[in-house]
Amino acid sequence: MIHVAIDALSWDNERGFGRFTRSLVAALAARGTGFRYTLLCDRAPERPVPAGVDVVIAGAGKGMADAASGAAARRGADMLTMSRAAAALKAELFFFPASYSFYPIPSLVPKLVCIHDTIPERFPDLIFPTGRNFRLWQAKTWVAKFQARRILTVSEASANDIARMLRIPRRRIDVTTEGAEPVFRPITDPATRAAARARHGIAEGDRVLTYIGGFNRHKNVASLIAAMPAILERVPGARLVIIGRTTGARFWDNIEELQETARTDARASGRIGFAGELDDEEMATLLSLSDALVMPSLWEGFGLPALEAMSSGTPVLASDRGSLPEVVGDGGLYFDPADKDALAAEAIRLLTEPGLAADLKARALARARTFGWDKAAALTEASFRRTIDSA
Fold first, then answer.
1. 2-179+372-389 has which CATH code?
2. Residue 334 Cα distances to 145, 213, 221, 353, angstroms
3. What does the pLDDT look like over 153-206, one tens digit per residue?
4. If you write DSSP's letter for every residue of 57-81 in order, what string do you get?
5. For 190-368, which CATH class?
6. What is the pTM of this model?
7. What does the alpha-carbon distance between residue 94 and residue 82 come to, in Å, rounded to a whole number?
8. pLDDT digits (tens, 9 = 90+) for 299-350
9. In the chain, where the domains are located
């Protein structure tokens, strides 16, 4: 059995890094193909750990969740505790599912680091509250590049970005994928749908556009909100439902500004709702009710909400940048994220062109079936073997 130790600082994180880590580890553990896994945590995991996966708690005093706002950094003493604990595991491979939580390991164990995207390097002014935060990120990324034997990422678009922007040879970069959880499927039960409409103030005849994600400035939610008045001129029954955490520990974002902007247009304000953070079942129901998921991001490394929407039978109105064309394929329509009028035009087209929505729905479901965590696990295992075998 090949022993793989896995950094689990993001295990309980509700954002994409945490979901990626939990879902990938579960799929890896289920394969039974000659690997055994140990999670290295700074505290006891709150979310379930797959059967057969060991857990080691290093006892660092400041966890990943405490630094999740983007305005704080982990203490050096805590990083040293994690580093020593990682070296003591004496695994045959150490895997970081997200470079965000990387820390140096003082041993020769082969290291595989997953860099999901180059968004911090592409948009530092939109990601970091201070220049010091960005410089610390750059320093951490440099050490990760130096220590990693290979790099893993989640899309070809990200692989090409990493090679170009971080100057890592493309031959050292492996690509895996992501998947949607089974809960994301078409939900057709009338009672379930009616109850969700009532909870979120959605009338039977409303044409629903949904956003799911964070509120960092590069997510470009401001352009989506700004496009709503034009959409409502053509589709008076349009409604925008925005899903994502609006209170509590958040990465540096502009949620207050977005909420204020949504209130400024008298007509649009009553048609824009902030639903807050929802569980997967509720998100899946809302996606099934939606005419489209809108992803206006300036850049994505993968874009998991797009796959979750397509798995629910919901087409995607997507930015034409980054990984989204690679993920969405023919399961949606595209627009220039810098042009709110282009966004509005594609939304109006989807909501008004006869037969288009039904065609995109079928294409979205078919596209979603080409992804999955089993596929991600197989690709990641292949990267594990390349990392161990490479000189």
1. 3.40.50.2000
2. 34, 18, 16, 15
3. 999 999 999 999 999 999 999 999 999 999 999 999 999 999 999 999 999 999
4. E---SS-GGGGTTSS----HHHHHH
5. alpha beta
6. 0.93
7. 12
8. 999 999 999 999 999 999 999 999 999 999 999 999 999 999 999 999 999 9
9. 2-179+372-389, 190-368
